[in-house]
Amino acid sequence: MHYENVSNSNNYKKMTKAEIASEVAKTTGIDKAAVVTVIEQFMTVVKDSLANGENVYLRGFGSFIVKQRAEKTARNISKNTTIVIPAHNIPAFKPANCFKEEVAK
């Protein structure tokens, strides 16, 4: 894959949505604008599904899931107060085993 060498705190490279679309367009021969539309629609479907409490499973890739965080007590150090963070849902991604194995190589 061709992508820009942008460092983050872990020294990993990053790919932008545009770079992913370019790579998919190049390898499939599909117009880049059409690929961007498909990628954006995919992201919308995943977000909407998770917002509705539905997990998204992609065999061989992984699962986009909704995790529930329990209520907890936290401290605001600057004001020296205690606050309660209510229970809430967060999105998460759990890679498939074959995905993890490929990355571990």
Enumerate the spans where pLDDT stays under 50 for 5 or more consecutive residues. Answer: 1-8
Q: Secondary-structure element order, as H and E?
A: HHEEEEEH
Rg from alpha-carbon coordinates: 19 Å
Number of strands: 5
Major sheet details: 3 strands, antiparallel
The helix/strand class is alpha+beta
Q: Please give the count of helices.
A: 3
Mean of residue pLDDT values? 90
Proportion in helices: 25-40%
Query: In what order do the strands lie side by side in the largest sheet?
Result: 1-2-5
Strand content: 25-35%
Shape: elongated
Can you describe this structure?
The longest helix is centred in the middle third of the chain and has 20 residues, at 32-51. It contains three helices and five strands; from the N terminus they run H-H-E-E-E-E-E-H. The chain has helices spanning 17-28, 32-51, 97-104, and strands at 56-58, 62-69, 72-76, 81-85, 88-95. A hairpin with a 4-residue loop joins strand 3 (72-76) and strand 4.
Condensed summary:
This protein has 105 residues and is of the alpha+beta class.
